[in-house]
Amino acid sequence: MNHNTLKQVILDQLEVIQNAEIIERAYTFEKNVNYILVGLRRSGKSTLLYKMARELVVSGCNWSQIIYVNFEDDRLLGFTKADFNDIIETAYELTDEKEIYYFFDEIQIVDGWEHFARRIADQKQHVYITGSNAKMLSSEMASVLGGRYLPKMIMPFSFGETMDYKSIPHDEKALLSTSKSAKIRKACHEYINHGGFPEAQLLTNAREYIKSVYEKVLLGDIIEREQVKNKSALRLMIKKIAETVMHEISFNALAGNIKATGLKTSTDSMIEYAAHAENAYLLFRTRNYVSKFAEKEGIPRFYFFDNGLLALFLIDKASALLENAVAVHLRRIYGEDIYYFKSKQTGIDIDFYVPEKCCAIQVAYNLDTAEDRETKSLLSFAEKTANIKRLMIVTNEEERTIEKTDTKIEVIPIHKFLLLDSL
């Protein structure tokens, strides 16, 4: 790789970092630890790297010690693993300092990156990596990297982070204030409909921005990266999953729905495409806690990593957006340790079960006609499940406590639920 081209890429990127708006996020990083930041595109991974770089300079580091390479830069087209060593050589041409800090953005674009990452970490260099594919955290990659990096998943803004970014108070006093609470509710409505992409927060046409992100994920991170040939079947699958948010769906059913449109596909293709969408952090799934293994894996409930993405596919589906927002919030706090609970024997159907907190959650836009159904499932679940500590119903606006047979069910509005740090 031409060293002058690399120098130009690195120096241009330093100007970007110096002039970038840094958004405070609820993520912390240990000193002298190498990290791999993964997550959905445009969720703020690069900005976190910018923040790290600027903090290094504030602490006494020279800008010449910062080597930042964005592998999506068009000047790096054709970059291969054989070119990685040119980055090291170029770094030593740019600085006389002993310590160098390497920042590699979207490094997964280059096949074989993990071997270089292992080598440079073994040389006791400081390295920070971002990527938009969950395969970077696979057991195979972890084996190659040999524990040299700490992984951290970065998600779009939480509701609390959105409030911070928009400078809207959301502490207990603000929630009790009539005027401030009204602003929080309005902001929550916008968050549920447009999601948490940082760059979309102040846009007048957030939908177009979110659509462009979706197309980049679909075309770049899934179709091109995974070499998907049946693009139409993939698009229809994602659309069908969006329409079934709130409900479990089998891969057989997905294949059947797509075949009904005249396209050729198979159950195996649906399994493969869904895995691609999950690897690109477009979708995640919850599994039935009470099912046997085959059904657990074969009949999931899917959710979108950001509500703005789901909203692209829905017309007047406030209930689905509400439940997706709850799912995303739980995924942020508890990772993959969230389930749904559905038993044909008992008739119990619980939207979310968090074993770590012994908590069961139902989601209902309002309780006008749904109260009996939602409370019946929760009460029956608590009766048949040991050590249940908390029962909740998340609604659009309602807030109260339901007490039946010495059991308490909290009814909490979505804007308050999304501000909880834990259950």
Summarize the structure in words.
This protein has 423 residues and is an alpha/beta fold. Among the domains are: 3-153, 3-Layer(aba) Sandwich (Rossmann fold); 332-423, no CATH class. It has helices at 3-19, 45-58, 84-94, 113-122, 139-145, 159-165, 172-176, 178-194, 206-226, 231-243, 251-259, 267-279, 293-298, 307-311, 318-334, 371-384, 414-417; strands at residues 35-38, 66-70, 101-105, 126-131, 150-153, 283-288, 301-304, 339-342, 349-354, 359-363, 390-395, 400-404, 407-413. It has an eight-stranded mixed beta sheet, with helices on both faces. Strands 2-3-4-1-5 form a five-stranded parallel beta sheet, with helices on both faces. α1 (3-19) crosses α3 (84-94), α9 (206-226) crosses α12 (267-279) and α10 (231-243) crosses α11. The longest helix is centred in the middle third of the chain and has 21 residues, at 206-226. It is globular, with a radius of gyration of 23 Å. The relative contact order is 0.09. The mean pLDDT is 95.
Please give the CATH architecture of the domain at 3-153.
Answer: 3-Layer(aba) Sandwich
Biggest sheet, spatial arrangement of strands: 7-6-8-9-10-11-13-12
Q: What is the helical fraction, as a range of percent? A: 40-55%
| Count of strand segments | 13
> In the CATH hierarchy, what is the superfamily of the domain at 3-153?
P-loop containing nucleotide triphosphate hydrolases
Q: Number of DSSP helices? A: 17
- What general form does the structure show? globular
How far from one another are the termini?
51 Å
Unreliable runs: none
In the CATH hierarchy, what is the class of the domain at 3-153? Alpha Beta
Q: Note the run of SSEs as H and E.
A: HEHEHEHEHEHHHHHHHEHEHHEEEHEEEH
InterPro entries: AAA_14, DUF4143, P-loop_NTPase
Domain AAA: 35-162
Pfam families: AAA_14, DUF4143
Domain DUF4143: 221-365
